[in-house]
Amino acid sequence: MVITFRGSDLNPVDVGGGARGVVGRLLSQCAILRAARVICVSANLKDRLWWGTERVVVIPDGIDLGIFHPRARDEARRQLGWPVEDRIVLFNVGDPRIKRLDLAQAAFRRAQLVRPDLRLELIDGRQLPDRMALLLNAADCLLLTSDHEGSPNIVKEALACNLPVVSVNVGDVAERIAGVTPSRVVDRSERAIAEALVEVAGLGVRCNGAAAVRHMSQDHIAERVLAVYRDAMTVRPAET
Description:
Blueprint: E1 2-5, H1 18-31, E2 37-40, H2 43-46, E3 56-58, H3 73-80, E4 87-92, H4 96-99, H5 101-114, E5 118-123, H6 129-138, E6 141-144, H7 153-160, E7 165-168, H8 173-176, E8 184-186, H9 190-203, H10 209-212, H11 218-233
Parallel strand pairs: 1-2, 2-3, 4-5, 4-6, 6-7, 7-8
Helix pairs in contact: 3-6, 5-9
């Protein structure tokens, strides 16, 4: 048996009630005892495991590079009806409690005092891929303030579109944007986030993110996952 952990199955996120969340995470930990191999989408999830870490492989989710790739920003804005002169910060609301919409809005208001041309665009991450790619190409910066993440796809998709990222240190974001400029991982404070937004979004330029995620195509990641399953099939029962 191969188990894959993506985030909420191990992270302390109690969206549906505290008891249910605790039981779910306990069952996840117990299931590891029967697994031949375990896949975690980020190293921080591996660190949450109680045992069996010698059977863990870290493989982030892949992205569709045929959809998520750089396009002309102004043309994307024309299709969305967005003004070309604004500096637009994109924020995926999802569950506002987990994504910390309150922190994002507070930091944005602070940044806007310095850069009145900043505009916060709230989106639901459950967009069709083509529209999400359009949004990412039209914006000037992606903002992430979540309390917990695994390996957020929207960050990788943003990088594939050369969209700069400002994020708190959550999930595997720091690893994903290492060497990407302009982009920043900052402390979880209004001031630090605001300063990074002014710096990064205020530039109004694209980053070099596409090169950083070139190896994360769905086909390449699928091959890595298949290799784990093939390896699991060679494990004898006594080894699990």
